[in-house]
Known about the structure:
This protein is an alpha/beta fold. The protein has helices at 13-26, 44-54, 85-90, 115-126, 161-176; strands at 38-42, 66-70, 101-106, 131-136, 146-149, 154-157. It has a single domain, classed as Alpha/Beta hydrolase fold, catalytic domain (Rossmann fold). It is built from five helices and six strands. The mean pLDDT is 92.
Amino acid sequence: MPDWRPDAEDGGRTHLRESALFVRQHGADFNGDVTRITLAGWSLGGKTAVAVALDDAALDGWRPRTVVAIAGRYTSPDPLTGRAALERLAEDDALASPIPVQVVHGTADSLVDVEQARRLHTALRQRGWPTTLSELDTDHAGVVMTVYDPEAHRCLPARDERVLRAGNETARVVAQA
């Protein structure tokens, strides 16, 4: 998952581009195969990863081999293209050539309804994209093995066994991608 600051003045676009470029330029330095990059994102990052899959221009012509979209809101614009994934898929837009998109979402997510993931998965399938949908028994933070702490205003590592199982499933999907 790229490192980025969505609160930056440009919505994080510069950070996203720099992170993706760093992996392509230096992945081999860490024994990685830069021809087999998977782009994964959670929440705002999930819909941004989908934008990269759908649009050749989102990261200046580069696209990953596969995408894992985790708990994203696909009905609102992403920070790279300014368009909503479900809107793009519903239109007769020229989309990039299909790549695999794995969609992961918690069924108890009260921040972003699981229906977002279901709609994305269905729309991708209808357009002929290879896609899977994993619905996990957890909430928005639990899909990434965390729990939101309102006092700290951030996510902290989870200890609950159910959340850990769900987060491990997300990790399995990312690893298999």
